[in-house]
UniProtKB/TrEMBL annotation:
Residues 20-151 form the Tc1-like transposase DDE domain. This is IS630 family transposase. It comes from the Bacteria. Transmembrane segments: none annotated. It comes from Gemmata obscuriglobus. NCBIfam families: transpos_IS630 (NF033545). GO terms for molecular function: nucleic acid binding. Coiled coil: none annotated.
């Protein structure tokens, strides 16, 4: 595993950040709440926290240098069939020729139909080394997303899904570039100097 990570890090400089698309999935629940709060000094913070059996949903998206894109919400856990159902109609239309799609080394990500669809769009698939979330910048975006979800406190599936759809706009191109740089991928200076409207 150590050698695979070293090999990956050696290839990072060759990857054009404007052509790399990082995809992953994360979970979300209707019982998400803030873990910490504030109260006057010496007083205990008391607030209601949901408990019980709550439904888990899966949120899958792609992170590029210009933002979070191709979002999809799944009722339940990700499977190989659902991953193909995400790649073909949701991810592939956002790809440009020459894009490199980077994803975790999971069984459901290794479906031949998903790889063929990406390659048919002119893209290439690269799998991260095992146990390497630190090399996938979308993990940083998901950390922010979960903070937003806890603050929003959506308690219904419809509310949660609606919030996830709108939360994609909370990720600016500058922020996404910083996530990519933080994980060791270089950013073209021409891209960094672009002015936003």
């Amino acid at each position: 595993m150590k050698q695979k990570r070293a090999d990956w890090k050696a290839t990072q400089p060759a990857l054009d950040p404007d052509k790399v698309v990082f995809i992953d999935e994360t979970w979300a629940r209707t019982n998400m709440t803030r873990r910490y709060g504030r109260s006057p000094r010496g007083e205990r913070l008391v607030c209601p926290v949901p408990h019980g059996h709550w439904k888990t949903t899966t949120f899958v998206a792609a992170l590029r240098a210009d933002g979070l894109t191709a979002p999809m919400v799944i009722d339940g856990a990700m499977t190989g069939d659902l991953f193909v159902a995400y790649v073909k109609p949701i991810l592939v239309p956002t790809l440009r020729p020459g894009d490199v799609v980077v994803m975790d080394n999971l069984i459901c990500h290794k479906r031949v139909a998903a790889k063929q669809a990406i390659e048919a769009a002119g893209g290439q698939v690269l799998l991260l080394p095992p146990y390497s979330p630190d090399l996938n910048p979308i993990e940083l975006a998901f950390s922010k997303l979960k903070g937003l979800l806890r603050a929003a406190g959506k308690r219904t599936i419809d509310g949660l899904w609606d919030f996830l759809g709108k939360a994609v706009d909370a990720f600016t191109p500058d922020e996404c570039r910083r996530y990519i740089r933080h994980c060791g991928y270089g950013i073209n200076t021409a891209t960094m100097n672009l002015k936003r409207d």
